[in-house]
Design brief:
The protein is mostly helical and 231 residues long. It folds into two domains: 113 residues; 116 residues, Tetratricopeptide repeat domain (Serine Threonine Protein Phosphatase 5, Tetratricopeptide repeat). The protein has twelve helices and no strands. Helix 11 packs antiparallel against helix 12. The chain is elongated. It starts with a helix and ends with a helix.
């Protein structure tokens, strides 16, 4: 704990130093008509500040520190990084890991541009925080808007299906995975198997298990657990 506290103090002390420098530069620039040199210094200061803010967000997500994370969010707005896609993705992840799914959703909704990582992180956030129905709805929105999705997206949505034993949605996703040749992916296959097993559809689970060219420890444990619960 002492080491963790020292590491966090080091990060925040460095952040304060950057913040003081950035504030001094901001005060030095004329708000009415800043000179080109002043604009360049402001941009350079923000670019130097960005990696540190990202480091703080990662630390807050890892240690579950929502107050520090919110303070960091305030600094992100102050330096004008709220429209940056990578920064927003890290904010969503931080709020999710701290259990503040509503704050994560607000960041997601306000993003001017969303990447695949943005959608995956938000869907994963909803699933991990017990908002499975919203996760399914967000995936449908993602498809309606014509956004590309990946095997990770499908496996995350299937995890939401498993939590609700949503067999109908699972079968729809299974058909979609077959159509897009994603069904043989170990993560998608394991997630499919898990939904079927938890829903008592052991034959379907076994069929997915047999078809997988690669099986992880989670694949085996899901299959064994499903088979055991059927007796």
């Amino acid at each position: 704990m002492k080491t963790l506290r020292r590491n966090k103090e080091g990060i925040y002390n460095t952040a304060q130093n950057y913040h003081r420098k950035f504030s001094a530069i901001t005060r030095g620039a004329r708000a009415d008509r800043p000179r080109p040199q002043e604009c360049l210094v402001l941009v350079e200061a923000r670019d130097a500040y960005t990696p540190l803010l990202h480091q703080i967000l990662q630390s807050c997500a890892r240690t579950g520190a929502p107050m520090e994370g919110k303070a960091c969010h305030g600094q992100i707005i102050r330096v004008g990084l709220q429209a940056d896609t990578l920064t927003s993705n890290m904010l969503i992840n931080m709020y999710s890991k701290c259990g503040l799914v509503d704050c994560a959703g607000k960041v997601f909704d306000e993003m001017p541009e969303r990447s695949l990582v943005s959608w995956n992180t938000m869907i994963g956030s909803l699933t991990q925080n017990g908002e499975e129905q919203k996760a399914l709805g967000l995936f449908l929105q993602m498809r309606r808007e014509g956004n590309h999705f990946s095997e990770f997206t499908v496996s995350s949505v299937l995890c939401a299906c498993a939590a609700k034993c949503a067999v109908f949605e699972c079968k729809q996703l299974h058909a979609l995975a077959v159509k897009l040749a994603m069904n043989l992916n170990v993560y998608v296959g394991t997630a499919l198997l898990d939904v079927y097993a938890k829903s008592g559809l052991i034959k379907d689970a076994s069929s997915v298990f047999v078809s997988l060219p690669e099986r992880s420890e989670v694949t085996w444990s899901s299959m064994v657990a499903g088979s055991g619960s059927s007796y």
